[in-house]
Amino acid sequence: DVKVTQSSRYLVKRTGEKVFLECVQDMDHENMFWYRQDPGLGLRLIYFSYDVKMKEKGDIPEGYSVSREKKERFSLILESASTNQTSMYLCASSLWSGMDYGYTFGSGTRLTVV
Amino acid sequence: GENVEQHPSTLSVQEGDSAVIKCTYSDSASNYFPWYKQELGKRPQLIIDIRSNVGEKKDQRIAVTLNKTAKHFSLHITETQPEDSAVYFCAASGRGKLIFGQGTELSVKP
Questions:
Q1: N or C: which end of chain A has fewer CB within 10 A?
Q2: Confidence of residue A2 (pLDDT cuts 50, 70, 90)
Q3: How far apart are CA A9 and CA A109, in angstroms?
């Protein structure tokens, strides 16, 4: 069973802080994704990665960056946290073998910026 | 850009009734359409998916239909039960990533 583990379930940070959200998957998946989930807006893609050291912007990358130094780990970085980044953050991974597959999601990190 | 529209945003049914959730997508290159169920406080879980070479797929009480010409797909849940209450998301593949709909909150009343 694929496991996607997010390091924190709940985080409270101050405005202006640099915030790191960590995600690790244990099934050798090539693809990894970061989404944020807000009521009424569904899941919006922040960044994604198809391989180590590779990253692509999603629909809402402003204010965020990512790092993928190892295949199993994909980190989301809030360079200077702001209150409008208060949200649920979901990491996901998927297999790639020439066709799309469904994601496996982590449990999510609920971030509050005060 | 790529877009997925999902309707309705909320749906309330009596136990035993059927529920239908509809999605439309914009990218004609999309070829993979999964559905996720998210219970309160939990992660989204894949419940069924369909590829563009198939028009319909069933798994017990759940079925998904796809109309490629009209670019829409639907989730059908029959004989609903209280444990079906959750938020459901549709998604369409787009250049290696999934584009999600806004979600439907399904409430099944006993």
A1: N
A2: low
A3: 4
**Residues of chain A contacting residue B43, judged by C-beta atoms under 8 Å apart:** 90, 105-108
The whole-number pLDDT of residue B1 equals: 64
Contacts 24+ apart (CB under 8 A), A54-60: A58/A33, A58/A34, A58/B97, A59/B1, A60/A36
A96–B96 C-beta distance less than 8 A: yes
Closest Cα in chain A, distance from residue B43 (Å): 5
Strands A10-13, A109-113: pairing is parallel
pLDDT beyond 70 at A1 = no
Mean pLDDT of A88-108: 88
User: Could you tell me the two tokens for B24?
Assistant: 């439309």
For chain A, say whether B95 makes contact (Cβ under 8 Å): no
Question: Rounded to a whole number, what is the distance in Å from the CA of B55 to chain A's nearest CA?
Answer: 17
Phi, psi dihedral angles at B84 (to 5 degrees): -80, -10
Tell me, what's the pLDDT at B43? 94
- Which residues in chain B land under pLDDT 70? 1
**Confidence category of residue A40, pLDDT binned at 50, 70, 90:** confident
φ, ψ of residue A87 in degrees (nearest 5): -175, 175
Locus of tokens 């994704």:
A33
